Amino acid sequence: MYRQCASLVERHRSELSFALLLSGYALYLILGAWVFSAVELPYEQRLREQLETARQKFLWDNACVSDERLEELLTRALHANNYGVSVLGNASENNWDFISSLFFTSTVLTTTGYGHTVPLSDGGKAFCVFYSLLGIPVTLLFLSALVQRIMVLVTRRPVAYLHLRWGVSKPKFAAVHAACLSVVAALLLFLLPAVVFCRLEPLWSYLESLYFCFISLTTIGLGDYVPGETHNTVPNSHRTLYKLAITLYLLLGLVCLLVVVETCCELPQLKSFRRIFYRENKAPESETRDQEEFSSTEHDQMTDHLTDQLTISSVSAQAASLRQDNTTWQ
């Protein structure tokens, strides 16, 4: 009986692993929902009470304003604010100048989508659909090609070089390299930029600045914090340069973060772990061998290239020695 159960589990290991993964993911979603509900619900109720108190106080102090007229004004103000138009007296900046539009297109094509600025006209909404329909796949293709090129210089070539030069175990060195790269990326993409945003956005704390960096570079883009949109935080003379710098930071930061993620995904340890949850390959042995050879072609070519570089000095020395021997015999 025990052997039969063990044999059954062995035959269906992939399906059982996937079922375990699915159950774990569902529990993770439930845990996240429970934590957010427990943490955020009291703050929401307190904010509602404060807002209602402020509203009643305003109506008490301004008896000439009816509740219905105030409701109508607030509805129109909130509707305009959803389209990025504020009714505040100090909000005089245009949302659709060239630099702001460039910032908008970068958030659309990278699927960040803060939602603080949206097309107002029907023509703009239609163009956004068709523009994204072509632009998002092209952006993914561009980012994929760029990340693969950077991976050769930053990850694959250094790991292969040190493996051949010093005889370091490739899986161990790849793990150390990925850890070091992650630390550097966390410092340059999150911790230091958060300090800069904390200085340039006086209403943001360091935690809020760090939160913005993470939400933006992971393309979550909730839109609750958008630099340059807080009123009077940046002088008007520098607002254009500030927006352009943020656009470059988001694009370059996204590329760097993808390089780190790709480096971690290529770790042999993670590949073995992911393979547990994949469906077992039932292909013939010859087809499997061809797939493995195809996937390792790039690595073999790189290894051969590095080997040629490492042995070129010894080959040159042997050639010089042969020429000297030929001269002596002649």
In a nutshell, what does this entry contain?
The protein has 330 residues and is an all-alpha fold. The protein contains eleven helices and no strands.
Structure description:
Helices cover 78% and strands 0% of the residues. The protein has 330 residues and is mainly α. The longest helix has 49 residues, at 13-61. The protein is extended. The model is unreliable at 283-298 and 306-330 (pLDDT under 50). This is Potassium channel subfamily K member. One of its GO terms (cellular component) is dendrite.
Q: Structural class given helices, strands, pairing?
A: mainly alpha
Unreliable spans are 283-298, 306-330
Number of strands: 0
Total of DSSP H or I helical runs spanning 4+ residues: 11
- What percentage of residues falls in helices of 4 or more residues? over 70%
Radius of gyration equals: 29 Å
Shape: extended
Query: What is the chain-wise order of helices and strands?
Result: HHHHHHHHHHH
Q: Largest sheet at a glance?
A: none
Family: Belongs to the two pore domain potassium channel (TC 1.A.1.8) family.
Catalytic activity: chloride(in) = chloride(out); L-glutamate(out) = L-glutamate(in); Cs(+)(in) = Cs(+)(out); K(+)(in) = K(+)(out)
Organism: Oncorhynchus mykiss (Rainbow trout)
Pfam family, one: Ion_trans_2
